[in-house]
Every structure is written in structure tokens, then in C-alpha cells.
Amino acid sequence: MQHFQIKCIIFVSYYRILFGKIKMSATQRKTLLRYLMPVMALGIFAFLMVAYGSAYTPPKAQKQRIVCFKFKQGTSSEAIKQHMSDFQDLKRQMPEIAAYSAGETFGEENSTAEYDVMHYLTFRTEAEVEKFRESTQYKSFEKANQANWDKVLVINSEIK
Q1: Contacts of 93 (CB under 8 A, 6+ apart)
Q2: 134 and 81 within one domain
Q3: What is the pTM of this model?
Q4: H or E segment at 144?
Q5: Which of 11, 69, 91, 122 has the fewest C-beta atoms lying within 10 Å of its C-beta?
Q6: How far is C-alpha 84 from the geometric centre of its chain's CA atoms?
């Protein structure tokens, strides 16, 4: 309550100064306005940021797609790097992908991983997953890289 009263007193004081209720010279009023204009502009900007932030909430991501690749024996490290780079470019090209991460796999103690790399993609809806799968960008990626793959595993899941 006390915080609100202080704000009211400040507002009333500014009102009295700006609209001539308090005697000030023209120079004093001009100096005060030079000070208040940036403060008011920043206040309006902050208000708009908060208003936009609370008005726009993107839909929650609900679908995840994990794509695992096993490369053929003898695939060069340059080809694997190109594969990773090409897949990462899909995130930049397709707004349907809400989030993306990837990495090389590793095995447990005394074992080797069944797949070499994994890509984690997050989507908002099942329709976006389907749009991604049927996109020309993804089909081009497959066509350019499938000669290096021994096997592929795709896992789709719901995010709870």
C-alpha cells in the first residue's frame, strides 16, 4: 500500500509541474521535459514488451522425434561431419522444428554403441512432424547422405 501511495505522489507532482500548477520558469520546465521524455519513452517501451510477452505465448512443444544413424564401415569423418552439418541446416530452414540437438553416441562399459549419431528434434504438433518428414529439404538430406548409412532408427514420442 505504501508503495502505491509513493507512486501516486510522484505522479501528482509531475502533473502539477508539467501543467503549470507549480510555478517554474520556462528554462526549468524545458530541462525537466528533457529529463522526463527518455524516462517516459523507456516506460512505454517496457510496457509494450510486457504486454507483447504476455499476449504472445507460443504453443507448447508436444512431439519429439529421435533419429539414429549407423554409418557404413569405412565412412570418412568428413562425410560424417557433412551429415551432421546438413541435418543441423534443416533446423535453420524449417520453422516447424521447435528445438534441435544432436551428438555422437557412446556405449556402456565393455560395449559399443549400436548407432553412431543421434538427432533430437522437437515439434509442436504431429502435423509438423509429418510436414518435416515429407519436406523437400529432408528428402534432399536423405538423398545426399543415405549412401553412407548402414541403418536408421526413428523414434517418435509424446512429450508429457
Answers
A1: 137
A2: yes
A3: 0.62
A4: helix 136-145
A5: 11
A6: 20
